[in-house]
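Whether sequence alone determines local backbone shape is best considered at the level of individual chains. For completeness, the protein is quoted in full, as a sequence line and a line of structure tokens:
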Amino acid sequence: MEEKEMVNKTIEEEQIDLNIEVPDIPDYVIEIKDLYKGYGKKEVLKGLDLKVKKGEVFGYIGKNGIGKSTTIDCIVGLKDYDSGEILVLGKDVKTQSLDVKQQIGYVPSEPVTYESMTGNEYLQFIGSSYGMIQASFNKNYNFLVKKFGMNVIDMNRKIKEYSHGMKQKICLMASLIHNPKVWILDEPTVGLDIIVYEVLLKMIKDFAAFGKTVFVTSHNIELVSKVCDRVAIINDGKIAEIIDFKKEPLKRKDLNKIFMKIYGGND
């Protein structure tokens, strides 16, 4: 792996001190302003406005086909949008896309990898694409392999031989290998066993404890209510309601009822 001075802190180092602050991050890490996105004649996002704060776990929920994944695809640069503005760490995702992508860790709703590679080769490839120095890569790699319950044999198998759950683990590991400032998760628990599910919950909380930001969509209301600081519910192309659990902690247990009320009892 080519040595470039881009990633100078490792996940493992940050595990030592959860009070480490991440410098040079604006108060609002993700800002979406008047966002419109349609497919043909169908408008999906209709003037969406949203702000996600530094150091919070932000949940983004809604029923199927309502625009959750479309919003994420626009944030990470996988889809263009019709009008509006998206800023990540103060940078425009259209005009400064490479800068934005360097700071994001993204997990899609379905595992997407190069299946002809081994798990080890794939993570090496991802690390190289972020210009990681070998020492940082090695520390993060060893930390993540252990955290997600993989082993040397697993990591040297072709990804095409993996179960769905193992592929999801590799995607989670790839999203964190470069120690990003923003972790974006689209339905991250699909295919995970209960042990890895609990590990993921802890990692989400720890990630935010470093002063970084997690943006997560999930149909798993239990996960959202457990780990999120705030939750936005999207309906009809806009934000229907934002719930701040720090200000209203009792609403954690009522999140499912709030969700169903917004959709008139229809999921």
Summary: Residues 91 and 99 are 8 Å apart (CA to CA). The first strand starts at residue 28 and ends at 39. The radius of gyration is 18 Å.
